[in-house]
Amino acid sequence: MVYEALAQGKLEEIGQLTILKKEVKYKNSRFDIYFETAERKAFIEVKGVTLEQDGVSMFPDAPTTRGTRHMEELIEACQEGYEGYIFFLIQMEGVECVTPNREMDKLFAQTLEKAAKAGVKVMAYDAKVSEGEIVL
User: Fold this and answer.
1) Cα of 109 vs its chain's centroid, Å
2) From CA 21, how far away is CA 7, in angstroms rounded?
3) What integer is the mean pLDDT of 43-62?
4) Per-residue pLDDT for 133 more than 70?
5) Helix (H, G, I), strand (E, B) or coil at 2
6) Coil, helix or strand for 115?
7) Facing residues of 128 across strands?
8) Could you read off the pLDDT of 83-108 as tens digits, one per residue?
9) What is the 3 state secondary structure string of 46-100?
10) Are 105 and 71 in contact (CB under 8 A)?
């Protein structure tokens, strides 16, 4: 769904793409999306958010060593001249915000904060989920 939104130019903050690919390997990770514009090359890792408490959505809903590794490698990609994005796709209605689930996975939360300070861009969009489709 994020890939399709990018292909259709629906994420204005990304800009006009010249290359768009799914599932691109970088070091020990396989990022969900790779794109290029005339000036930039970037990786996007999409994380589906399905946990909510009192209007606050949280990620992850279980410990995720893989998610932490993705954050570390997005930091490395930024240091090598790529842009890195973590894209939280909130898959429920009625939430007010998204936050790292520190109680579930403290290391992921710390690594996400480290990644943001290192230049990884954090994005969050909600989606309308119904039988047969997900709309950004």
Assistant:
1) 14
2) 10
3) 93
4) no
5) helix
6) helix
7) 135
8) 999 999 998 888 889 999 999 999 99
9) EEEECEEECCEEEECCCCCHHHHHHHHHHHHHHHCCCEEEEEEEECCCCCCEEEE
10) no
DSSP 37: -
Strand partners, 5: none
Q: What is the pTM of this model?
A: 0.91
DSSP annotation of 107 reads H
Tokens of 74: 């997005």
Q: Are 69 and 86 in contact (CB under 8 A)?
A: no
Q: Please say whether the beta carbons of 24 and 30 come within 8 A.
A: yes
Place of tokens 């020990």: 28
pLDDT in tens, 4-21: 888 888 888 888 899 999
